[in-house]
Design goal:
Layout (H helix, E strand, L loop, with lengths): L1 H18 L3 H17 L3 H16 L3 H29 L7 H9 L24 E4 L4 E3 L9 H4 L1 H4 L9 H20 L3 H13 L1 H10 L1 H14 L6 H17 L8 H28 L12 H12 L8 E6 L5 H5 L3 E7 L2 H7 L3 H13 L4 E5 L11 E3 L5 E5 L2
Parallel strand pairs: 3-4, 3-5
Antiparallel strand pairs: 1-2, 2-4, 5-7, 6-7
Length: 407
């Protein structure tokens, strides 16, 4: 949401500058881009791209060039403390490692996002990975130095320090074969009524529309640039929302229809608006009634809230109590809501299945390994262990969670 706000704010300032240039607005442009970088690392390279495009757009004016220079200075000054802090922490120059580690995760050498141990060929030696304290089933411990609800996801760059990403054409093409169609789907199929309206309006006034696109080219190019930064890595709708919004606004703004077809244009716009409004109402009703297909719609944290209250009430856990999990730690919202600290885990998938199929002696060794990490409880999701009924485990009423006390 903050990235969307900063990106839209930056381009709205650019529009106002085109109408009435002044140094104060240029400084605000640099400020909004700097705040965007503090929000998400991708806004650092995109900030420089925005400033360069802005300079090219109005470089014929010396006053405009001075203004862009001021915006760049403000952006650099605001970004510098974060760049210096991260670089000092890592012992090398960097404005953020998210792009680097995401490339290693999704493209090459495709290492696991959590609990990487350096086993993949060519991935490099891990400098300080999470600690594997039991081999079978695999138990990982991470009680420090990173502190948080779930440390492997609090700062993935720390646990993945030493990870080597490398370009591999076959892997890159495989990722692009997935991300390109997905981004096209976001643009063309998420809101077909919007796309249909834009195409129809453009056809009604094609020559003047193309002229409008030429005038507004920065507001078409910049969102495309933002979307392109994600193409080599991953597609996620929430990363693209602000770019898609600006792109369609620019395309619509570029439409300049002759007066003789004004009534037709108004009818198209009204129809498009009504269809989008009805679609939004239908989507809202689905959210409120939870009428979504499996795997679609927003996630509910209701069960996590119930689990958090149960652990703090019935189990008497205090704030920052150490716990262990069996399953996916990134979805353990109950830990965040209950102010608990996850310090060890058996990851979901193969490790979780191995634990569930293990004899009692092996489970006891797992309990002891968790106990030695300082964990007081083990929490496991019922969704993947519906037939798991073992002494010492109890279900949390109204949820999919089981809990096992280690004390």
């Amino acid at each position: 949401m903050m990235v969307v706000a900063c990106f839209c704010l930056s381009l709205s300032i650019l529009i106002r500058l085109e109408m009435r240039p002044n140094l104060k607005a240029f400084a605000l442009l640099g400020l909004s881009l700097g705040i965007g970088y503090w929000t998400k690392a991708i806004m650092f390279p995109l900030g420089f791209v925005t400033l360069f495009v802005a300079w090219v757009w109005g470089r014929s004016s010396s006053a405009w060039t001075r203004g862009v220079a001021l915006a760049t200075l403000v952006f650099v000054c605001l970004s510098a403390p974060l760049v210096l802090a991260i670089s000092r922490q890592k012992g090398r120059f960097t404005f953020g490692d998210s792009g680097k580690i995401n490339y290693a995760w999704f493209v090459s050498p495709r290492t696991p996002p959590r609990n990487w141990q350096g086993e993949e060929p060519g991935s490099g030696p891990p400098l300080h990975p999470t600690r594997r304290i039991l081999k079978s089933p695999p138990v990982f411990e991470f009680d420090g130095p990173v502190v948080g609800t779930y440390p492997p996801w609090t700062d993935p760059s720390y646990w993945n320090e030493g990870l080597h990403q490398h370009f591999e054409l076959k892997s890159q093409l495989r990722v692009l074969a997935r991300t390109v169609p997905m981004e096209l789907h976001v643009l063309l199929r998420k809101r077909p009524e919007l796309v249909f309206g834009v195409v129809l309006l453009a056809l009604l006034a094609l020559p003047t529309w193309l002229a409008g696109i030429r005038d507004l080219w920065p507001f078409v190019l910049l969102p495309i640039a933002g979307m392109s930064l994600y193409l080599p890595l991953v597609e996620n709708d929430r990363y693209l929302g602000g770019f898609v919004l600006v792109l369609f606004l620019a395309i619509l703004r570029a439409v300049r229809t002759p007066q003789n077809i004004g009534p037709v244009v108004r009818l198209v716009v009204l129809t498009m608006a009504c269809l989008m409004f009805l679609s939004t109402i239908e989507h809202t009703i689905r959210i409120l009634t939870r009428q979504f297909a499996e795997g679609q719609g927003p996630n509910s944290t209701l069960q996590d809230e119930i689990a958090a209250r149960y652990l703090r009430g019935k189990k008497g856990t205090l704030s920052y109590t150490k716990v262990a999990i069996i399953g996916d730690g990134t979805d353990a919202y109950w830990a965040r809501l209950g102010k608990l600290r996850i310090v060890a885990e058996i990851m979901g998938g193969r490790g979780e299945a191995e634990f569930l199929d293990s004899p009692e002696e092996v489970r006891k060794s797992v309990y002891q390994a968790f106990r030695e990490t300082g964990a007081k409880l083990i929490v496991m999701s019922l969704e993947s262990c519906q037939t798991f009924k073992v002494e010492g485990w109890e279900s949390i009423p109204g949820t999919q969670y089981y809990v096992h006390c280690l004390e």
